[in-house]
Recover the amino acids of this structure.
DNA sequence: GATGAATGAGACTTCATTCAT
DNA sequence: CATGAATGAAGTCTCATTCAT
């Protein structure tokens, strides 16, 4: 069918635009990225971009949501490999970290640019942060339920874990290459564990 | 001396511009704040603003530095009241929190807007974050030296503490009023303490 | 014949497009009407519209000509019912008025939008105006020839009659509902009659 | 004072922009006129235009109002020279005509472009038309009151007079040079007079 | 014949910055 | 020193038109 072909081509073009946008946004930042440049980078015309997306803002939002969803998937896959609730939460953090370590552009977009891109995004970003904090929290709750850790305020713990990770990633994103991002986590991990009352068990690495 | 008078008048105007800029930036965000509006809010003309500052960017940077310095002062004053190194670090965090709780505009500027305002600021922000992380770290180092806590990676701990705090403040800034910011810290504090191996001692609030 | 079927189908679609265009043009005005919207309203695709018409301009021109021709037909039918040349001219005006009263959209298109839609249309509109003025003129000429009215400049009279009518209709189109358009004519008629030296004779209909 | 100088310079520039806009609008029509071209023609920058006017629409509206006001002034001056109310109305029409005859650009703008420039202007144009129709009407009312003419529907008469004039001017604007606009009025005048029951008195021309 | 994705020229507008007064 | 008019580069977005499928 012609229709199907066109649809799939359209979807391919959408993805090309999104991919190009990711590159441009993380190269220039949201405010300094121009739709013109995104169009150029995706081998499309400006009009083409506007055919597929209502505007620059929408592109960024798509990207944000797409990334958040990919990230969540990765985290969930990583957690599936473990039974221990603490190990699960731990695995989730590590998965997120791995992903960002591989795609610094993504990390920059996600951790840095999104905040200052305007009120609209801050709200959405806060939600995304909260989503991840909640994932952690739920597994800490499980851990409490199973008696693995003592009862604590898991909500604040989830947020704190995420915040600590965030700070580490952000630093790594902004300052040059420095060290491997995973190494930072290796140092961070015992801290997090202790914070919820888990005695250190240096079982794992990557 | 006329000179002296003029100097002080000039300084007064500078401050008026900075104060106005703070209001405008935190109302509109960096990118949506216009020099025109800052001029209007500070009862000056656009030309006047440009006489005192090289440009919009410089105003923001001034503000950032001024705020960081005020914050550091507050933190140091708070720490001076304590001997115990852990208590010092703790007091510093609380002082920062108090300040932000009183001036949400400042918090927004400092924690949210600055990140996405452009490459220039991200670098500076990372430095400021690092400064605060270092303050914490130094006192944790003291604590280790005094045998109050066991040896740990204090650098990562400083960053983690700051990151956790950051996340909490950011959430509070972006989402509406919700709860008192200080309450969040009350919940956060035991976590931080445990993370460096200090048994909970619920001594204080303020 | 397949050919015949296809031809008639093509013509049907043409008409559907024209009808849709009339609605859109009179809703949005020429410049704010988009081909996309016309396509949507005529249950066709943009490509379809461009298959049947060379462009937006041509659609508008078609509409203009179609309307002018319909209007002329109505006027001629109305005139056929009368012998008196003055009555004929009178009937023509009334017929035009009736038509517009029923189709305000048409009136708006014809009297208002067409003028400002661009140079191309102004020329054509002037011609159409002239056509109607000429119809009136011819019957005034007949009246002069038959001695019903005294010799006057019938050309200018035709134009003036049309102009007066035009102003009345335009007002009615732009300002809301107000009164019945026909009532305005009832008031206008004696004026027109007197202007060519015909004593008032309130013979007529509706 | 610097202030005064700047103000007067600003006003001069405003006028330059308005004058340039008049030229461009009447050369290209409202929709095809670009702010760029207006800026160029007024030896300003695009930004300069936007400093003085909120946008293209506002420029056009200014022009419309300015012209309407000038026209009214001319008409009133012309009427001041006469006592007879009919002569006054007559003089007003002639004054309007003279003005347009001298400034065809103005006429085009006023009679043709304004209508199709968008809904906003149509409303305002209808008002302006009504203003002029009212001026005529008031003097016809005077004439009735003084017993110069028999009682008639002066409101519709005012509108009809204006409409007739409008048609004549519009034709003259759109079709090339042809004849002198004033000659058209000479032919139109007896018609108008008769229409309100005034016997012809070919007293004047200009 | 129909479809709708793609194009690209061009429109309006904003604003940081400069500079004559 | 202050003012605010002026600049001009850059940005987002619209839409008539084309054309591969």
């Amino acid at each position: 069918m012609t229709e199907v072909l066109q649809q799939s081509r359209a979807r391919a073009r959408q993805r090309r635009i999104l991919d190009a946008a990711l590159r441009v946004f993380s190269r220039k930042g949201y405010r300094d990225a121009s739709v013109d440049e995104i169009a150029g980078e995706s081998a499309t015309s400006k009009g083409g971009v506007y055919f597929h997306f209502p505007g620059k803002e929408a592109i960024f939002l798509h990207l944000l949501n797409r990334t958040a969803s990919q990230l969540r998937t990765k985290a969930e896959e990583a957690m599936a490999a473990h039974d221990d609730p603490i190990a699960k939460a731990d695995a989730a953090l590590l998965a997120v970290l791995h992903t960002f370590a591989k795609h610094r552009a993504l990390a920059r977009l996600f951790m840095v640019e999104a905040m200052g891109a305007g009120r609209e995004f801050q709200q959405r970003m806060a939600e995304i942060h909260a989503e991840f904090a909640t994932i952690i929290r739920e597994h800490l709750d499980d851990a409490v339920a199973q008696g693995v850790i003592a009862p604590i305020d898991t909500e604040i713990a989830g947020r704190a874990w995420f915040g600590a990770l965030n700070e580490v990633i952000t630093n790594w994103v902004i300052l040059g290459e420095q060290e491997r991002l995973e190494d930072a986590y290796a140092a961070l991990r015992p801290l997090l564990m202790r914070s919820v009352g888990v005695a250190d068990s240096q079982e794992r690495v990557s």
Summary: The mean pLDDT of chain D is 86. Residues 133 and 162 of chain D are 6 Å apart (CA to CA). Residues 2-28 of chain D form the longest helix (27 residues).
